[in-house]
Amino acid sequence: MVAALTILVFLGTFAVLYRGSERGHIVVLSGAALVMAIGTLGGSYSMRMVLDSIYFETLALIFGMSALSSLLARSGVFVYLAAATAGRSQGSAMWVLVMMALVTYAIALITNSLATMAVVVPVTLSVCYRIGLNPVPVMVSEIIAANLGGASTMIGDFPNMILATAGQLHFNDFIAGMMAPCLVLLAVSLLYFEIKLAGWSVSPGAAHPDWQASDDLRAPDVNLRLLRSGLAIFAVTVAALMLAGRVDLRPGWVAFVGGLAAMLLGRFKDDEIFPACGGQDILFFIGLFVMVGALNSVGVLDWLVDWLEGTTAGHSAVRAVLLLWMAAGITLFVGGGTTAAVFAPVAATLQLDGYGDASWWALALGIMAGSSGALSGTTAGALVINQYAWFIKQHPGLTAAIPGGHAFSHGEYMRWGMPLMLIFLGLSTLYVMMAAG
């Protein structure tokens, strides 16, 4: 009875989130309170178990990297990079797509995809409006690039932060295990767009007549004081993260110290402190960890591990590949953070014959692929749709550059993203099979 109620609350919570909620952290915390009450009354989930279920190191990573990213973003350097790149496009369609995708990937290496897309999408829509270019393929390529950038490093996005904590992994582990396959997949994705968009060009009749004389695309001023402070703290933090494994220091606490320094030097106003340090994300993941702990307390995750090992008995490579594809499929519906939280305990107990970290890379690559297949799977999906809708409302002339029936939407994104997801999964399968032995 307790197990059934716990599963029902978990599914109900994410059904509410899937329908859309601007206060996702409130929804998840409410679900966490319900499963705690059910577990306490049923005698299966004690307060000690609740505390043990929370990955405090992941919360420290989120705080630290959110604060550092906020400091750098406040300096204006991210918008400067995006605007300067777009402003030098000279009206070339593929140049806009390739260069904006590369800039997005670079930014996503150090900041989460939500913050990354909040920077690049307004710039993208502006330049596309002024040169008469369909922005949809460009935005899709940027979302893909943000997912790949986030997957490349331990600090790039929330799922990797969770996996780093659960797997006791370090910064250098992710560079060694994830950077190369993600760069290969980035190159493949750009080739995919090149083939799909053969003959693609700007639509001169749809261009804004005064775009070349406009100041809108000028790179904004950069606050040099904040930039110097941010880069100095970031450089020291990354250097410490690279050395942490050698001195047996957990990366979450390194990032936490870097985040404290960023908050002190950033001079954030009182109402800016909570969002700058990732407050809503921290609350969301506290609730999520508590809910996953409740599933673990009633044996759901043990059952999943037993099923995976029983189904793939004697075939560790098949086991890792199955984990890869399952992670991608679930991420399509609930997002990467939830998938990472649910499957991290599973990956920690799976037995593989080959490279010891293969299960973590299978999980990370599966989450990345699922995030790329549908907007519901990517953290920034709702943000990008809202930014697009607002810009079209303010500048309806942009619709002249968009073919009929192909406006940016969940369905249109899947038309581009699903084939890429399958390509990513195919190539990742080969990588994981070699790693798993």
Structural notes for this entry:
With 437 residues, this protein is mostly helical. It is 75% helix and 0% strand. It has 20 helices and no strands. The protein has helices spanning 2-18, 24-42, 47-53, 56-75, 77-87, 93-108, 113-131, 136-152, 158-166, 171-196, 224-244, 251-266, 270-276, 279-297, 300-311, 316-334, 336-349, 358-373, 381-394, 410-436. α6 (93-108) packs parallel to α8 and α7 (113-131) runs antiparallel to α8. The longest helix has 27 residues, at 410-436. The chain starts with a helix and ends with a helix. Residues 210-214 have low confidence and may be disordered.
Could you give a quick summary of the protein structure above?
75% of the residues lie in helices and 0% in strands. The protein has 20 helices and no strands.
Give keywords:
single chain; 437 residues; mainly alpha; 75% helix
Percent strand:
under 5%
Q: By helix and strand content, what is the structural category? A: mainly alpha
What string, H for helix and E for strand, traces the elements in order?
A: HHHHHHHHHHHHHHHHHHHH
Which whole number gives the mean pLDDT? 85
| Radius of gyration, in angstroms, nearest whole number | 22 Å
> How many β-strands, per DSSP?
0
Helix content: over 70%
Low-pLDDT ranges: 210-214
Shape: globular
Number of helices: 20
Largest sheet: none
Query: How widely separated are the two ends?
Result: 40 Å
